Amino acid sequence: MIRNLRSLPNWCAAKGTTLPDIRLTYVSTLRPVVAETDIRDLVAKAAEFNSAHGITGVLAVDGNRVCQILEGPETVVSALFKSIQHDQRHHTVVMLERRGIEKSGFESWGMVRQKMIDIVQHALTS
Question: Which one of 35, 36, 93, 97 has the largest count of C-beta atoms within 10 Å of its C-beta?
Answer without folding.
Answer: 93
